[in-house]
Amino acid sequence: GTVSRTIAASAKEAGAEIAVNATVKGIKYSSNRATGVEMLDGTVLNAKTVLSNATPYHTFLELLPGLARDSGVSEESPLPRDFQHHVRFADYACGAFKINCAVDRLPEFTCMPSAVRGQPGPQHRGTVHFETTMEEIENAYREASLGMPATRPVVEMTIPSALDNTLAPPGKHVVQLFVQFAPSDVHPH
Q1: Which tens digits make up the pLDDT trace of 49-102?
Q2: Which of 10, 62, 144, 167 has the smallest number of Cβ neighbours within 10 A?
Q3: In Å, how far are 57, 125, 127, 154 from 180, measured between CA atoms?
Q4: DSSP conformational letter for 68
């Protein structure tokens, strides 16, 4: 929340207008540049710069003119054909997932106990990896590529509340687990 609010405040200070819960129907385009957006309700918002937080597929092939060509409308896309092809056939499958945890105390590590119990130390401020060999990483990848959940997945842990105590109530913490490799499609065997 704090990072998003800070970015929004900085953008507003620079003159940006932020609309939330507002669906964009399309990106307006003229003379080789985006000139604004058309909202679902038909309102057109003109702009010098258009930023998109959507996928490249949605931004370039669904919001820009041209994809309608696939449904019979003859409007030409402003994008080069090779770029359109690359975006259209990009693989968006992901072999990772994230687990966010709310915990009632700071994790303790046998290999490096906290100097003051419950107070973050340097061991809480980096990324903690739970794999011990490169072979474990390779095996997890191979299993996922075969459509099987990894027997021993690669797990990275961070504790953002060890750096920013506004993320959790006093004495509590936020733990994030980034897990690889998970198959994007599970094949039962």
Answers
A1: 888 888 898 998 889 876 544 444 445 777 888 888 888 888 777 778 899 999
A2: 10
A3: 24, 21, 15, 5
A4: G
Residue 129's beta-bridge partner residues?
156
Query: 69-74, long-range: CB within 8 Å, 24+ apart, which pairs?
Result: none
Q: Are 64 and 78 in contact (CB under 8 A)?
A: yes
Q: How many angstroms separate the CA atoms of 59 and 78, rounded?
A: 13
CA distances from 136 to 27, 72, 98 (A): 45, 51, 19
pLDDT in tens, 178-189: 998 776 666 665
123 with 164: CB under 8 angstroms?
no
143 strand-pairing partners: none
b/e per residue 38-52 (b: at least 16 CB within 10 A): eeeeeeeeeeeebee
- Alpha-carbon span 103 to 123, nearest angstrom: 17
The structure tokens listed for 58 are: 């949605």
